[in-house]
Amino acid sequence: MTSIPASATKLKNYKFSENSFLPKTVTVMLRAEKTLTYKCLVRPGDVVEEGEVIAKPSDENSTKALIHSPLPGKVIDILPVRCADGTIESAVKIQFGGKFNYSGKKLEENKLEFMTPNQIQKNLTDNGILNLFDIVYPVSLGSQIEPLKSKKERNLVVRLFDDDTTMLCDSLYSKFFLPEIVKGAWALAKAIETENVIFVADSRHGLKQKIEPLLNEKSFFFEVNSSKYPVGNSKAICRLYSKCKRKPQNIKSISIDDLFVDSGTLHQVYKSVYFGIPSLSRYIHFSGNCIPVSCFLNIRNGTTLKEIVGQLGNFVKNPSLIIVNGQIRGNTATSLDVPLFKNVKSVYFLSSKSITDNEMYQCINCGNCRVACPQHIAPDLVYNFSIKRLDVSEFVQKSAALCTQCNVCNSVCPARLPLSQAIVVLKKKIIGNMTNEE
Question: What is the pLDDT of residue 358?
């Protein structure tokens, strides 16, 4: 594991979370997962309600998440937009106007004991809940439940801290909404028909005393030190759990085939299952040296960065770089017109004085990537084969399949080579070939 600079603003400095102002318009991306195609259900001129389904998967039998209108209003356009992950997608632009179905209403809490596992799964699918445990590859939570039904033993693993140490999103969710997150965990555990729930927290966040009164006899809580990266992915958590000296008798081991979720996802589960609220908004962490103060704001899906900047106190410095979803595994937003969707956790505004040389150079054979790699891959050799087609052993080529896309190799490379991206390309080819051979 490798030391990565943590977020400059400490968790203890955040005293509250708050709602953002309602935007005049929202631009809602018509895609929830990277490889999924969606069918738009509205046209310009249509009037939509808050929470109305505006897009669904093209596959009619899909258990993938639906997409909803985050505000009541009128559809004014369907247009291509550049998204936070760098892709260009179709989007529905909605002008705000009309009455709310959920916001500002006193909703009666549903009783979990009266719901069946199938009802909870359908609820999560219909309400468009995404699992952002792996922020690079969001997955429809309802679809993740299906393959678990065939497993004899299944566990739910809840990460209460941020995988990327440069972000403060899941950690803030755990600080402000811990009871709701635990209730969301019980709902999800019922959906996958298990009583085995493991909560993993950062030992520096002091959650032990707060969470223990909320747990039951079948659940388990343990702490890790997340200052060493990566400790938040599924493989790392499995490894750390195996080292726990006092495991509960009902959970001897966990595997990457279990269901892993983050605290932000469980907050969405809580609102969906207990109150029937679709995925209309989520809390996003805003930070960086271009804004007056860092904050944790509840943002409506489809709100553009331009709409948010004024609420952040406007820029004190002009941003030269806008990083979405963390400095380790995130993407660079190209403009303030980028809409924020339900797959966004953090936005970091960086001035030109804080940016070092971004040129890509030739490999200098320093070996930093090999030393830092938690999977003990030789990223430089895999990169040379994938990009330059240089001779390397078949063993080195197949080692790409071990990559977890933690991006540590990129962060320590002085030549700024896209090592992780090249490994992903080769990994997909290797896994595809292995599947074909089988």
Answer: 58
Residue ranges for the chain with pLDDT beneath 50: 1-9, 434-438
pLDDT at residue 194 in the model = 93
Q: In what order do the strands lie in the sheet with 156-159?
A: 220-224, 197-202, 156-159, 259-262
**Tokens at 95, concatenated:** 């002008």
Could you tell me the two tokens for 402? Answer: 């071990």
Of 204, 202, 201, residue with least CA distance to 220:
201
Could you give the 3-state DSSP secondary structure of residue 3? strand
Structure tokens at 336: 């303030």
3-state helix, strand, coil in the chain (%, to 5): 30, 20, 45
**What backbone phi and psi angles, to 5 degrees, belong to 298?**
-85, 115
Strand 88-96 to 67-68 pairing? unpaired
Q: What is the pLDDT of residue 74?
A: 97
Q: Is 206 left (phi over 0), alpha (psi -120 to 50) or beta?
A: left
For residue 221, list its beta bridge partners.
Answer: 199
As a residue count, the chain comes to 438
User: Using CA atoms, how far apart are residues 326 and 313, in angstroms rounded to an integer?
Assistant: 22
Residue 119's Cβ-count burial label (10 Å; 0-12, 13-18, 19+) is: middle
Q: Which pLDDT value is given to residue 372?
A: 81
Which letter, b or e, does each residue of 137-148 get, where b requires 16 or more Cβ atoms within 10 Å of its Cβ?
Answer: ebbbbbbbbeeb
